[in-house]
Amino acid sequence: MDYRQLGYSGFKVPVLSFGTGTFGGSGEFFKGFGSSDVEEATRLVSLCLEHGLTMFDSADTYSHGLAEEILGHALKGRRDKAIISTKTTFTMGPGPNEVGSSRFKIVKSCEDSLRRLGTDYIDLYQMHAFDAITPLEETLNALDDLVRAGKVRYIGCSNYSGWHLMKSIAISEKYNLARMVAHQAYYSLIGRDYEWELMQLGLDQKVGAVVWSPLGWGRLTGKIKRGEPLPENSRLRNPVTASGGPKATDELLFKVLDAIEEVAEETERTVPQVALNWLLQRPTVSTVIIGARNEEQLRQNLGAVGWNLTPAQVAKLDEASKTPMAYPYWHQHGFSRNPFPV
Predict the structure, then answer these.
(1) Are 287 and 53 a contacting pair, CB within 8 Å?
(2) Which of 62, 108, 119, 334 lies most in the core, judged by the most C-beta atoms within 10 Å?
(3) Which CATH class is domain 3-333?
(4) Averaged over 301-308, what is the pLDDT?
């Protein structure tokens, strides 16, 4: 397993991370992901560690804390061999202060996550969404306090716009606070909006991308076929889960799948392995989060590393996955002087 530097830090992470959204399966939304219990999760974690995949991503809201609890049990006795990333911001209770990125919410959520995970520190702590109500100064001061207290090693965000992230970095630099080194963002062959602005910011400000849903919310598994019903265990069969994730038209999906399948045949790899390998060759990507309901899926996804697509194969996938850009990005890309990424 290769390791890469995480943004503007000296910390290195494996190019593949394991997402724990499949742990627990509590609540209608997470039922669509999977429902690994402690026994199954422990087997998956062991398999990851055997292959050098040492980073495990979770969030307090995954199955309302159950995913963190299960991950904590699965890592019991081997916490020192693992990198834990988790997140907060979304609602965790009925009270008015149990949502957002306020000092109150961050400190409470961090303590709760530490307890559920059975650890005294979190390697990467991320704001799960942008909170437009709480001042960024308050959020960043609270995170800085957690870093100085040794409860958090590094901080990051998820699902921020370019200007939200840039403002966060500027505030940290102005007041000498802990700086966000990672941005957990959606990026896939059927969702390339990340390239329009966030990739450029990542390059300029040295923010590492932690990619979520690299298989386009379960659409690039190789199991979805034209004119055929969705697989029985697809998250897209659950209306709640399907509506809560990124969208893609059938026209784009099958155009991209055709190209992936051609490359998969050329390389003697699977559709998800090709889709993941394409991401690993993109600028700013530090690590790609893979998920798995079982060992078979995990072993297949682990096969995305140790080889590279050729430039011609990358170009074929690039061409098939291109979509019209929003303004001003189409204008900027139309200026021939500008390289990729702009």
Answers:
(1) no
(2) 62
(3) alpha beta
(4) 97
